[in-house]
Every structure is written in structure tokens, then in C-alpha cells.
Design a protein that fits this description.
Elements (H helix, E strand, L loop, with lengths): L10 H5 L6 H6 L13 E5 L5 E5 L5 H10 L2 H4 L4 H8 L1
Antiparallel strand pairs: 1-2
Length: 89
Amino acid sequence: WLETSRFIVDAYHYTNHKVSDTLCKEWCNPAPLNGSAPNLVIAERDGQGQLYYKRAFNTQACEQLNAWLGGFESILKRMTPGNFDWFLH
């Protein structure tokens, strides 16, 4: 399980990790180029035909959703569980 699992963190959190932290670089990298997570990084070609890599997934999606939901906090915390579930779905 440990050999195939990754604990991916979002790109902004990852850049704040120490460069010397090899454990983090191996297991938490949101854009590994070693083939361990091929669905996270895709190869593209620029206008001159040069190959470059880009992230194929928005690693900030959860952070963005939480920030958006924060605007509804005062309403959501007063709802019954049934209304809360209906509102979010």
C-alpha cells in the first residue's frame, strides 16, 4: 500500500516545504515527473514545438471551495442537518 500511495498536497503548500525534505519531495509532490502519478502532470508542446509539463489538476480546488463556502457560514451553521445537506447538494 505504501509503495503505491501518495499524499498529494496542493501546489502552494508544497512550495513552502523544505527543499531538503526528501520524504515530502517523494510522497507529497503535486506534480511528480517520475511517472508515479501520470494523471497529475501532462506533457504539452508550446508554439515552438518545445515539450513542457503542466499540472493537469487544480490542486487548489478544495481551498477555493472552502473559501467560497465561508461566505455562507452564518447561514449554514443555523440550518437543520436536512436543510444543510439539501443546500450543499
